[in-house]
User: Fold this.
Amino acid sequence: MKTVLLLSTYPIISPRHGGQVRVANIAKTFSENGWDVTHLAVYEPEGYPPSTLGANDVKFPAGSSFRKYKGTYVPLINDLLSGEFAASQEGGFAEILKKLPAVIDVIHVEQPWLWPLVMKIKEMPQYSNACLVYGSQNIEAPLKLEILDSYNIKGAEPVIADIEALERKAALEADIAVAVTQADFDILREWGAKMPLLAPNGIAPWNAKADVLETWKSRLPRSPWILYVASAHPPNFKGFNECLGSSLACIPPDSKLVVVGSVCEHLESTLRDSRWGQLNLSRLQLLYMLPDDDLDAVKTLAHAFLLPIPHGGGSNIKTAEAIYSGKYVVGTESAFRGFEQHLNLPEISVARTPSEFHAAIRNRLTGPATVDSKGPDKDARESLTWARSLESIPRAAAAVIEKKAQA
Amino acid sequence: MTTWFDVTTILGWHRPAVGIIRTEAEAAAHALELIAAGEDVKFCFYNHSTGYSAIGAGEVTATLKRISAGHSSAPSQVAVISSNKSSIEARVKEKALKVLNRLPTKISGRIYQFFQQRRVSIVEAVVGVRHLRSALRGFFKPAHRGHVFNPSSQQASITEHPFSKGDSYISVGLDWDNKNLPYLYELKKNVGLRVVLFCYDVIPVRLPHLCVGDVAARFANYFTDVAWCADKILCISECTRKDLVALLEELGAPVPETAVVKLGCQLSHELSDNISPEVKALLKERFVLFVSTIERRKNHEVLYRAYARLIDEGVQDLPKLVFVGMPGWGVGDLLADIRLDPRTKPYIRILNNVSDSDLMHLYRHCMMTAFPSLYEGWGLPVAESLAAGKYCLASSAASIPEVGGELLDYLEPWDVSVWATELQKYAFDPFALAAKEEAIKRDYKPVAWAETAQFIFASLK
Assistant:
């Protein structure tokens, strides 16, 4: 049995945000294809309670001197700083070393942050022949710049330059560089990746429980409504007004924009503070964070999905879920990045301006449902599942190992 | 298929018919004629707890009689809405970072680090406060769960109503106060009603600073709901129609069919010989008449300033300037100036609670009228002035030029000089004024309220 060491900057026992979900599914895909998987996270303890941690996870302590960037604290870059911490003897490397399996055929690292750790492990003779897989969830430098800018954090240029250098290094040194979108794939290839691979984000098919469905039916609008599920990741709310023109007048009086996830409080604030605040609040139903069973029911009951993501790299797992649902989907071009092949489906609307968003939402919320009680044709949407979207990774890794063995 | 005419506003009105009330009353009177002619027209009214109910023609007739027997009084004002309550937790992080970024890096970094280590507990505390607040709100006001878990706000049942599939529904009243449009929308969808609603103006959204309180957000909600409910919206001027369509497009609401309906401009009462002493005294003098609520938007100030300027320039024997209307919001300083300014004191008169008959006397005897309003949905006093055969010094703003067409010269409402010049011109050039009056008498076609009412009902076709 081949062994893969899977590295990330967050635990995956209870995946919530998109990055966790993707890594958890990579682990599952390797495992389902007959690999022995060791996952190790170098995580920020202030962000993850003990119940969410795996046996191999190593904390990046809040008081660590590695939390400083060149001697000063810079907000929102602990992911970048975790790489140096993990690869340093004064940092977490000694503890990490204890958790490594005896044999490693493949080291798969998601996002570039822990690439220094990958190289450190690779320097060790027993692991020197390991195949290196770099999973690029996004092109991180421009995304980080956008996030830091949105919080008005000045003087971040050296940080951004370091991130880009790290990304390029990972793409160049990895045996396999995985992209989630065609655009990211093209960038990795341009950077000189030896074997760029496209493995988009996918979804885990969901089946709502009947009793939970009934509960939510009574709490949600009787008329068709549109759902937005998102985390508090800044691109998920910073561009909302840009997409919708600060107004939810496109939602009928008896309907709502139903919002789930940690984006709720940010979105409420964004919409309330606009000129049309009272109108917007009359069209908003916030459900905040929901347990999986409830979220499955809410997704099942939705008439349409909204994807108002004007910027940001990578591909959106929520987009995959929305497309998989077979319901109406209204989103930006950016939101469909990585899923361009589905854009010709009749239930999908791409909107480029507020007026296109408004027209599409009005049209969808006053139109008939797209799917009957049997749900969408799941066979036709099989390609959207994690099992299909990620299966090329273990296959490519196996081919690299074989090639190395023959060399 | 029945045509239902909503009389909710006039049923609850106990003063004379002005503006919107007049429109509803005149349309109701026309509906009674249609009923008498055998048309399938019925009346309904709305109540927040019971929804829509039918009401007989007899009760509507009695209501119209009660209103027409009333005496002049002041129009009501738009109520101040409560501002949206803001939650503090939503932007704590963003605001904290913005504050920290103003501090030196060494200090801000340490503070950030301090709070970063306590992030989970801070988030838990904020969530706890939010749940506590929500729980308290739910406990003390169980019917007001807001937007969080309460998708449906209507109280009345949509199963009990007098309407049948294919019926039509017309409302021209004070719907922002008296109706629940989300309820009407649901009813329309369930029953299959054809709905005709009215738009008098979009001033609360377009010029909220000239209204009482922060009305823009509230009325944006109202106009959006009107757009979702109505198959057709009747607007009282082309300007109002264009402004409404532009607003709905900006908001992203649907834009239903629109049409322009001209409001009637007849003064309904016969002239009475019983004239109040104050008005009787005025009738012996030369005066310029301005009929309107005294509020900032109506721009009484430009007339006061124009008079003051003419007096300062040594112009003598100016006609009196008579304001007829109730003092409203935002004019305290202006009224104090008018009361205390020795230059204009001999000229300016303010009359309130003037009867319809006295108003007709004032129209008949004035030299001319003035209407310098900053914005109007229509401009009824201009139409009334023309119907009385009187020239009007009218503002060029918004819909006002639609009222008088080529018969009037329209003046920039903020330009004191031009108002002073035109006042002086017509005050002392009887031939110029007579020429204008001649053209008005020859060319002005006043709109009868019956025509307005007929148009409203014909709009269903």
Q: What stands out?
A: The mean pLDDT of chain A is 93. The first helix of chain A runs from residue 18 to 32. Chain A touches chain B through 55 residues (CB under 8 Å). The two ends of chain A are 21 Å apart (CA to CA).
